[in-house]
Design a protein that fits this description.
2 strands; Cytochrome Bc1 Complex, Chain D, domain 2; mainly alpha; two-stranded antiparallel ribbon
């Protein structure tokens, strides 16, 4: 066979596989350049003037419709001057804000911001006026609290709304005291010092920081305590749960008997 009979090889760039490999190489190189030039997550400021400036931009973009451009409040939302960083961390960190729709009470929901963004908005709101700060890790360290003392304080000040085990309960005018079984220690502390919704504020003069740790220790003990029975019914106990089961079961049997009697006629 002569050289003229041998088909010429197509250049790599003209083959489909070669084109795909070329594109993958370019995308990989582009991703590497972006990763090298993009700021790392650790460089995001979460405190100080730089964080407050970033938080102000987030606030004006997401919160100013209700709370005003400078947090002064409007007919749709209260002023945030003096509420402190703790209030922002609680409201936004539990998904209660931004408010999905007007109602009797803001409910816990999906958190819409990253922790760094929440910290930045909290830093900005803290500049509007003095208010409670976000508690430190030591403030909410329940291992340093006394669960027995915390239970006494909780039953005296909180159980009339939240149930003695923190299971929550109904209030008036469509409001309710939420369950605390899944509330983090930091959010419990922040709720105590900011008084969200219908909850009163418990200053350090009323409940000291150590007593707040005791309450958190009590709630943590309740969370780890396994409830006897099937559902617990708000930690009312297996006897109450059995009574509910008995009443429902008898009711179903009576309903079945009445239905069978009607069919037999």
């Amino acid at each position: 066979m002569t050289d003229s009979a041998i088909p010429a090889r197509r250049p790599l760039r003209r083959r489909p596989l070669g084109t795909l490999l070329l594109l993958l190489g370019l995308l990989t190189a582009l991703g590497g350049v972006y990763a090298a030039l993009a700021p790392s997550s650790g460089a995001v400021p979460t405190s100080g003037p730089e964080a407050a400036a970033a938080g102000k931009a987030l606030f004006q973009e997401n919160c100013s419709t209700c709370h005003g451009l400078s947090g002064e409040g409007s007919s749709y939302g209260p002023t945030l001057v003096g509420v402190g960083a703790a209030s922002v961390d609680f409201q936004v960190g539990t998904g209660r804000m931004p408010l999905a729709r007007p109602g009797a009470q803001a409910s816990r929901g999906r958190v819409q911001f990253a922790p760094e963004q929440i910290a930045q908005m909290a830093a900005y709101v803290a500049t509007l006026g003095p208010g409670p700060a976000i508690p430190s890790a030591a403030d909410v360290d329940y291992t340093k609290g006394n669960a027995a003392l915390g239970g006494e304080i909780f039953r005296t000040n909180c159980s009339m709304c939240h149930n003695f085990a923190g299971a929550g309960g109904a209030l008036t005018h469509g409001k309710y005291a939420p369950s605390l079984t899944k509330t983090t220690p930091a959010h419990v502390y922040e709720a105590l010092v900011t008084g969200p919704q219908a909850m009163p504020v418990f200053s350090d003069d009323q409940i000291t920081p150590q007593q707040k740790r005791d309450i958190i220790a009590y709630l943590e003990a309740q969370r780890q305590d396994k409830t006897p029975g099937l559902t617990g019914l708000g930690t009312l106990g297996p006897t109450t749960e059995g009574l509910f089961g008995w009443v429902i079961g008898i009711g179903l049997l009576i309903a079945c008997a009445v239905w069978l009697a009607q069919k037999a006629r």
